[in-house]
Amino acid sequence: NAALELGRRFVEENMGIEKTSIISPAQVYGMMIPSMKGLMEEECWVIFLNSANYVISRDCMSTGGLNSTLFDVKKIAAAALEKRAVSVILVHNHPSGNPRPSPGDMKQTTALKDALNSLSIVLTDHIVVSDDSYFSFADETMYEG
């Protein structure tokens, strides 16, 4: 029966995603650091949110080298549309231990923010994590959310 199959798929897709409303960069850091602590290369993750800021999913979108990772703006935008996300939070790590964003991080963030805005999707924050600290673009008012 098609309805039962759809229900089974829905349950499988949503297992492991906590039903929590995201309200702060510290909360995002606490959610992501178990997956990112101690990594030797940069990874870029995206947290997709619904209109109540509940996590729809969180996906690793790219893996890079020691000092950088590039992400595909179109891939992130397409995933946000597919998941019917209202907003997204970008999260990537700096294995160096310094969470300050690089000029490249700032440029990529602006490109993603502009692309998502054109689709009426909000880039709520970009959080750069290291093993023991983080940098939030929203906290530092690096851009208007």
Structure notes:
The chain has 145 residues and is of the alpha+beta class. The protein is 34% helix and 23% strand. The protein contains four helices and five strands, in the order ααββαβαββ. The protein has a five-stranded mixed sheet, sandwiched between helices. It starts with a helix and ends in a 9-residue tail after the last strand.
Task: Kindly list the characteristics that best describe this protein.
145 residues, globular, 5-stranded mixed sheet, 34% helix, alpha+beta
What does the secondary structure layout of this molecule look like, with pairings?
Elements lengths: L1 H13 L10 H12 L6 E7 L5 E9 L9 H10 L4 E7 L9 H15 L4 E8 L4 E3 L9
Parallel strand pairs: 3-4
Antiparallel strand pairs: 1-2, 1-3, 4-5
Helix pairs in contact: 3-4
Termini gap: 44 Å
Query: SSE string, helix = H, strand = E?
Result: HHEEHEHEE
Q: What profile does the largest beta sheet have? A: 5 strands, mixed
Task: Work out the strand percent.
Answer: 15-25%
Oligomer: single chain
User: Which percent range fits the helix content?
Assistant: 25-40%
Please tell me what the overall shape is: globular
- Poorly predicted segments: none
Assign the structural class, choosing from mainly alpha, mainly beta, alpha/beta, alpha+beta, or little secondary structure: alpha+beta
Number of helices: 4
Count every beta strand, where a strand is a DSSP E run of 2 or more residues: 5
Radius of gyration (CA) equals: 15 Å
The overall average pLDDT, rounded, is: 86
Strands of the widest sheet, in order across it, are 2-1-3-4-5
